[in-house]
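Researcher: Next entry in the queue.
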Amino acid sequence: MCSFSALRALVAPGYPLLLLCLLAATRPDLAEGDSADPSFTSLPVREEMMAKYSNLSLEIHNISLTEKSPVQKNITLEKPSDLELICQLTASRDLNSVNVTWTKDDKLLENVFNTTKMGNTLYSQYRFIVFNSKQMGNYSCFFNGEERRGTFNIRVPRVHGKNKPLITYVGDSTVLKCECQDCLPLNWTWYTSNGSSQVPIDVHKNDKYVINGSYANETRLRVKHLLEEDGGSYWCHATFQLGESEEHIDLVVLSFIVPLKPFLVILAEVILLVAIILLCEVYTQKKKNDPDDGKEFEQIEQLKSDDSNGIENNVPRLRKNESVEQ
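Model: Structure for this entry, 326 residues:
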């Protein structure tokens, strides 16, 4: 480290330029504290990143734009990669007046891409290093003049679980499973849903849960001694070098009375129907066993008719006797 006398000597006439160079050399690197993403700044910085991650294999992804409608392509990454995105536009007219722009999540990127023309085809190439989650997202190439757009959707692998709700009963045990095809997450974590927030499941504090898995690309959560309040949403969370992915599984815990309800309803309907049939049978049988009731009714009616006829017959007789006496 230079002494104070040496620095004072450098301030003497004839050494101002040397002093400025020395201060610039000893100044901390501003790039380290810069919050901007180095892969999207200047071309020399990008070349430095390329050299730092030179051991990464190059992945080339291409989109061919032939129609007016936008074209999309999904790219799955779980670890740092050297990406080269190429948009290819073929048109029948002159392409010299067509300009190309690139955006990331609808934000304009610097002019650090290459555009070349071969015949009636225009190629635009964007190459960069994906080394953390900030580089993940949607990259779009837009050809001004032809109004063509291509989009590369760069995501971490998706985690898959059971699509339909898992139904079980009180007192049983169940196993929830999540897996990631053709990928190896760094870590798996399970959560339960507590309203709008997620609560991590700690198997060391709660022996109700057991987390295991036969392979690195899957995880299993076993829930023992189920209660009705154990039902709800469970989330499996996978962590990768470039981001995170999660999936939820719905668990429904039923009491044993629930599956019996339809049977009980049917049973009640059968009992009611049988009761109605029995009442009809009893009424019919009773009517058959008491035939005299109808005869008594007929006799009463007959007596009433006879009485009325006798009264009518006596009236003319009384009239005749009265006429004779006179």
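Model: Residues 213 and 219 are 5 Å apart (CA to CA).
Researcher: Noted, moving on.
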